[in-house]
From TrEMBL:
NCBIfam families: gntP. Keywords: Membrane, Transmembrane, Transmembrane helix. This is Gluconate:H+ symporter. The chain crosses the membrane at residues 5-22, 28-46, 58-80, 100-133, 178-202, 228-249, 269-288, 300-322, 342-370, 377-399, 419-440. InterPro entries: Glcn_transporter. The keyword Transmembrane applies.
Amino acid sequence: MSAPLVVAVGALAILAVIVLIARFRLEPIMVLFGVAVLVAVATGRMPSAGVASFEAGAGHALGHIAFVIAFGTMLGRIVSETGAAERIARTLVARFGPRNIHWAMMTVGLAVGLPVFFDVGFVLLAPLAFVAARAAGQPILLAALPLAASLSAAHALMPPHPAIMLAIQAYGAGVPRMVLLGAMAMVPAAIVAGPLFAALVVPRLRVTGVSTLEAQFLERATDRLPPFGLSLLAVLMPVLLILGGMLAARLLPGAGGRWLADFAGSTDIALVLSTLFACVALGTARGMGGRDLARHLHDCLAPIAFVVLLVGAGGGFGRALIDSGISGVLTALALRMHMPVLLLAWGLAAIIRLATGSATVAMSTAAGILAPLAHQAGLAAPEALVLATGAGSVAFGPVTDPVFWQVKEYLGLSVGQTLLTWSCIETLISLMALAAAMICNI
């Protein structure tokens, strides 16, 4: 099949998903599965190959995120049930003021987003955003969108996230200089795509109803709240454990250091240990017995079942596009275009992001492809190339990204509203970071 036809199939597949779900209200999981199989058939593959691609992509996505969502939701439920989320929310509202809750959540997101992946940070902090918005008397989206924007900006632009570290290595950039330039790009991007964008778009959105995940964190008693310091420690413990693992890897040589780094630095282990800590420190202090805690941990899993399946379906759809050769054709077309190297880095990462849905895959793949060309041409500073590639890796916030569906379900949005919020946020971050890369290259 010719390259234009392959690109057309990919574009039509993405458009079909949006129209069938947003306009005709069809079941999202079935739509993603059906279109994935049709993509395989349209590109000359057997239907069974499309099914295999979908299952492989779903398995890969769920292998990474399913238990992160589960353990993170358990931690969020205990933090919410014990009043710790309420205590943190009241403190944030008191410090920032009810009218500035969007700035408070952006600040929290930037701090937590530095050592953890977006999906971990979002699962961990979404309950806090729900409760903080209620305490401030503001719409949920005014707190949740700046949180999501700041987490995404930190993930795309700041070490030590794995993808950007791979880009730093590929381009030969300096880590200290990259930390400085990344922070200079991250903060303005988070401000524009977070509080400023939320203040503009939230009053114009009409979100009806409450998502099941949001509901389970809002209907809680507010008496006998735990201390602020203990509450904050419970929420931040996964971050502290992951940071401790990173420090152990650098400061403790030998097998013992590697074991400790691997143990503490594991996202799943960090979330489980933090949940156990919250159960003991917060649950026991509130007088909850083991049976009550077990019931809360069990009951909170039911609302996330659809979220997990939908995230897996998004991953399966993205894998179907990859296996059908669409991402490879788009990458080849981008390389044949005559454009400045920074724009090429941004465009290549953006195309891979659109085709595969993964920011990590987009950044690492684009950096690997362009590194020899960038070294040979010498037309851009290595740090500027890292920023441009990271900027492209978060462009569009497409439906091929499992996070698109995660944000949609967590915030109770329609597909159209998710495109107007999350996809616009990701594109704003991308354009702001690209501008920062160009300024750094002057």
